[in-house]
Amino acid sequence: MSTLKQLAPAVLVGLIAGGAVAIGAELAKPDAAPKPAPTAAPAAAKPKAAADNHLPGWSQDRNAYFGDLHVHTYLSFDAYIFNVRRTPEDAYRFALGQPISHAGGYDIRLQGGPLDFTAVTDHSEYMGAIREAADKSSPLNKLPLVQGLFSTEPKQIMQAFNTMVTGYEHGTLPKEFSDPAIASRAWTEVQQAASKYNRPGRFTTFVGYEYTSAPDGRNLHRNVIFKGAKVPDAPYTALISNDPENLWRTMDGWRGKGVEALAIPHNSNGSDGLMFDTVRRNGAPIDRAYAELRMRNEPLVEISQVKGTSETHPSLSPNDEWANFEIMESYIGSDKPVTKFVGGYVRRALEDGILSRETKGFNPFKFGFISSTDTHNAAPGSAEETHYVGKVGRSDSTGELRGSLPPKGVTSWDQAPPADPRQARFQTWGASGLAGVWAEENSRQAIYAAMRRKETFATSGPRIRVRFFAGYGFPENILDRPDSVRQAYAHGTPMGGDVTPAKASPQFLVWAVRDPNSGYLQRAQIVKGWVENGVAKEKVFDVACSDGLKLDPATSRCPSNGAGVNMATCEPDRFKGDVELKTVWKDPEYNPKQRAFYYVRVLENPSCRWSTWDALRNGTPPNPKLAPTIMERAWSSPIWFEPKA
Description:
The chain has helices at residues 9-12, 77-81, 88-95, 129-133, 154-170, 180-197, 244-256, 288-297, 346-360, 421-428, 444-453, 484-491, 610-618; strands at residues 63-68, 100-101, 107-108, 117-120, 204-211, 222-226, 261-265, 300-305, 308-309, 368-371, 434-439, 456-459, 465-471, 492-494, 498-499, 507-513, 521-532, 535-545, 565-566, 571-572, 580-586, 596-604, 607-608, 629-630, 633-636, 639-641. It is an alpha+beta fold.
């Protein structure tokens, strides 16, 4: 289905690099997990030369597939309160390019074409309960708390949401919301929709859910994605335990019974330093058993979504000019400010991981990357700046509600009253993102295997394709060979894997291709983290420049290509930037004794942010408090350099 798959060999020349639920039976006992069963192939596994009964489109060189693994429908308690009435089936129809109705009273549709894969991941806590509470024939409808949950007015919606969140955090919600029969009906609906819309070779669905742990409001949410149709009778929820370790132990138990799944943490930026803390929830230091448990069950991390980008923070990466990208500095679902950024961003976690590997012998933070939307509109893939429709149904369904337009009756931003803090956070949300994988075919088995080996990449929304390899002995003309991808696999390790030292620096093969429906590419970078004298350090290297510009080796930066945006029309510069960027790079600061990681970041030329598009269509000036433009981007998963013991 995707129009963005691996190009044919002739075109490849030079493209390289491109609910409250009580779980049943013994599965509910996280402490009784058997010895974990083997998982998928290791990260550095090479593509097979042949496949039995493979699907149309199968490629030994692997195809790029784009999807969304973080999608909420009316089965999530918050989405229903936000007036969302779209179902899991509606979500899959939207992913396939069909229109659905938005809670704001208008129709929405993907502009960039269908997705290749999707998972509906409704909150497991109270899954389906609020949907049933709205039914006047249901006993839940008679509960006192329910009477104020179904307003269509934005202020009342926020009050209802706060009532639910406060009750969830303090354990005071009605016990009827936790009826296992309600959750079972919702969980069955999730599975049936995934089964109905899974179309091997064309469109892949995954059964999934969100584990919504938030101790003291600090975000520890995970999306749990199942490999196939075999799933537990009920999800393991944060109402059973809000400690992710117990989720992982339960997943080990599932795996021992033939139920394979992985978890993907998200919004570490809202964890206030908790997501990648160096101590466990019980206060004990992280040890090898913890690291192995986590990495066995949590190989990926969601690096960007609507509620901000979690790559890095300017305070953590002061020498990274592009660190300040769609930063959100408040707790999830409230305006409480985040005060601790260490432990909340992925790059620092990677650095802490290699430092732990160096000093203690294990790495608890060896993640690959994806992005997704976290849409609560049942609208997977709705990460398009030009057609941004918000995230939380009726609550941010218009430019005025999300702060990109001045309130009605106000003609200038100088006259606008201060924004309600509960809604001001909508201004900081971004139209992001998408998950990318490199897989032989569009099937559950192949895409899940790609996620397991971390041959994945993330984008802020555009369907930018990124490939990244590291190795020794690439052919000198590899960038110009029609079999360049095959050569890269033969002589190197793809993103998500490890390389070991040699006398010379490994070669890094970088390849990025623009989304034809988005902007041109400005530069490709490699972000390096390493351990030096017991201290973790980082540096950003530009490695490929657009427009024929030459890299300055003294600064490791490309000159500016001068690309701009006509702010009167949001028309970007059509004659700056490249369709593709490619290079083979060696680390000029290579030290074979230093443990390190490397990942690719690709930047587009500047383009209008969604808030500017809202203002342009309304004929009003953009909100001066918001960035008028952004630089869309993509990230590869890392490759780790592992010195010999």
